[in-house]
């Protein structure tokens, strides 16, 4: 995940808010502990310049922990042994910076800070040179042989899965409701062997549908129907438009590297190559086994379109780049090929312009309009898993033990049962209409951010 940039964007010290700092915390405990460290009596040698803030926080050890923050992304470094990123000391320093900005005196960075800033700049320059260098020549004959071998494996796997799926439907979905997890794991493992990992993931998700409560039969049929459509589409891949081909290949398990995408964009003009002011409108981090997946949603002010930037990290490893909710970036994005392009890479990230603006044009005035837009997107890409959805002038409400979003026409949109901050969202709204952004999956929305009185909050 590489940004090739000439000038790093940053938010000025006085522009940071408590909500933005909380959004950077890896978990609620870190945010709470960070707030506990936002006290002057816990810090020494505090300072700042235009790009970096620093300080030394006394911990349990003999020597204080040296904490420093590069506000250009932001990026953190601390001498403490914590494996969380940012650690509580980094958060504490940021909370202190927001609450008592005058406590950080303008000064030249000490050597330990200056060395870090220099090393970051050197790494960025090396990465820039690396991305600009042509990749090693690939033996076209060997590559073609590998591609053909994988295609044969995937084709055989897809054909086997089609037979299995037809038998499953003939058997009847009620009969499979009591099957154990191993019933689904066996064909999933076969898809892994066939080098179709995304098919394996879809099969492993089915038991959760069966256990999802009332109406699971309809949801299961819908899921199996999409899977059948995918398998049929793969069998006719060459007859389909390029965008649909790309979506099918993605759903099977093929990937396109960011390096390939940016190289393609640099060699030819494309409508998927867009320069704009991009608003960071929502972020979500999920964990699968030990792999952490970060989804950052952006909205283009001029293009009026959404973009999804993905990052991956193992265990407690930090994500390569940080984003701040409500930050506006001047950036150039290249979108992956799709019938409904959403995922993108950032090929040029420059200075941030003025704070978020133009939000009156963002999203939909009613739920009906939002669902109509989703339906059009689904017609283009039937396998769309998450749809970015912004609703204007809506109110969160609690009704019969469930959370909903209510629009000006009194229509209701269900909120995901996984969402745990309903009361917080209602308190922030004060019962008045607000702007809500979230991920819609066709059944419910998972709120990621809200806009209240010209401020962004994590939902």
Give the topology.
Layout: H1 18-24, H2 28-36, E1 43-48, E2 52-57, E3 65-70, E4 75-78, H3 88-99, H4 111-132, H5 140-171, H6 181-193, H7 197-210, H8 216-235, H9 242-252, H10 258-267, E5 273-288, E6 291-300, E7 306-314, E8 328-335, E9 344-349, H11 367-380, E10 387-399, E11 402-406, E12 412-414, H12 422-429, E13 434-440, E14 445-452, E15 455-458
Antiparallel strand pairs: 1-2, 2-3, 3-4, 5-6, 5-8, 6-7, 8-9, 10-11, 10-13, 11-12, 13-14, 14-15
What does this protein look like?
- The chain has 459 residues and is α+β, with helices and mostly antiparallel strands.
- It folds into four domains: 13-126, no CATH class; 145-252; 258-356, Beta Barrel (OB fold (Dihydrolipoamide Acetyltransferase, E2P)), CATH 2.40.50; 363-458, OB fold (Dihydrolipoamide Acetyltransferase, E2P) (Beta Barrel), CATH 2.40.50.
- Helices cover 37% and strands 24% of the residues.
- It is built from twelve helices and 15 strands.
- The strands form three sheets. Strands 12-11-10-13-14-15 form a six-stranded antiparallel beta sheet. A five-stranded antiparallel beta sheet has the order 7-6-5-8-9. It has a four-stranded antiparallel beta sheet with strand order 1-2-3-4, with helices on both faces.
Percent of residues in helices comes to: 25-40%
Low-confidence spans: pLDDT under 50, at least 5 residues? 1-10
Q: Please provide the ordered H/E string of secondary-structure elements.
A: HHEEEEHHHHHHHHEEEEEHEEEHEEE
User: Gyration radius, to the nearest Å?
Assistant: 24 Å
What strand line-up does the widest sheet have?
Answer: 12-11-10-13-14-15
- The number of helices is 12
What is the structural class?
alpha+beta
Taking all residues together, what is the mean pLDDT? 87
Percent of residues in beta strands:
15-25%
Q: Main β-sheet: number of strands, strand sense, barrel status?
A: 6 strands, antiparallel
Distance between the termini: 26 Å
The rough form would be described as globular
């Amino acid at each position: 995940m590489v940004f090739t940039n000439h000038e790093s964007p940053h938010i000025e010290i006085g522009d940071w808010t408590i909500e933005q700092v909380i959004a950077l915390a890896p978990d609620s405990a870190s945010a709470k502990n960070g707030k506990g460290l936002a006290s002057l009596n816990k810090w020494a040698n505090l300072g700042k310049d235009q790009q970096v803030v620093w300080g030394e926080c006394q911990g349990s050890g003999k020597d204080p922990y040296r904490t420093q923050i590069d506000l250009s992304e932001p990026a953190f470094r601390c001498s403490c042994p914590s494996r969380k990123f940012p650690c509580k000391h980094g958060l504490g320093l940021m909370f202190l910076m927001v609450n008592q900005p005058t406590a950080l005196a303008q000064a030249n960075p000490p050597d330990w800070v200056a060395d870090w800033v220099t090393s970051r700049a050197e790494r960025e320059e090396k990465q820039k040179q690396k991305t600009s260098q042509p990749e090693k020549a690939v033996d076209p004959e060997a590559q073609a042989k590998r591609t053909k071998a994988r295609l044969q494996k995937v084709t055989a796997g897809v054909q086997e899965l089609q037979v299995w799926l037809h038998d499953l439907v003939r058997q009847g979905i009620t009969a499979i409701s009591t099957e154990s997890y191993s019933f689904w794991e066996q064909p999933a493992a076969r898809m892994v062997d066939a080098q179709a990992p995304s098919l394996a993931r879809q099969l492993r998700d089915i038991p959760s549908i069966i256990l999802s409560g009332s109406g699971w039969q309809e949801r299961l049929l819908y899921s199996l129907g999409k899977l059948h459509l995918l398998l049929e589409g793969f069998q006719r891949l060459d007859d389909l438009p390029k965008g649909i081909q790309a979506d099918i290949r993605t759903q099977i398990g093929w990937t396109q590297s960011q390096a390939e995408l940016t190289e393609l964009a640099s060699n030819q003009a494309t409508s998927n190559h867009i320069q704009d002011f991009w608003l960071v409108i929502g972020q979500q981090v999920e964990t699968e086994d030990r792999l952490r997946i970060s989804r950052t949603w952006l909205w283009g002010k001029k293009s009026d379109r959404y973009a999804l930037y993905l990052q991956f990290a193992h265990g407690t490893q930090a994500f390569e780049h940080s984003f701040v909710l409500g930050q506006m970036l001047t950036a150039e994005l290249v979108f992956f090929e799709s019938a409904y392009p959403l995922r993108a890479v950032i090929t040029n990230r420059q200075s941030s312009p003025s704070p978020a603006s133009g939000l009156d044009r963002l999203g939909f005035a009613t739920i009906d309009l939002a669902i109509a837009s989703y339906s059009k997107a689904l017609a283009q890409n039937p396998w769309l898993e998450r749809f970015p959805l912004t609703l204007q002038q809506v109110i969160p409400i609690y009704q019969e033990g469930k959370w909903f979003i209510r629009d000006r026409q009194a229509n209701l949109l269900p909120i995901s049962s996984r969402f745990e901050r309903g009361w917080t969202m209602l308190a922030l709204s004060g019962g008045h209409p607000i702007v809500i952004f979230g991920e819609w999956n066709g059944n419910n929305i998972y709120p990621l951010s809200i806009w209240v009185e010209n401020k962004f909050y994590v939902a």
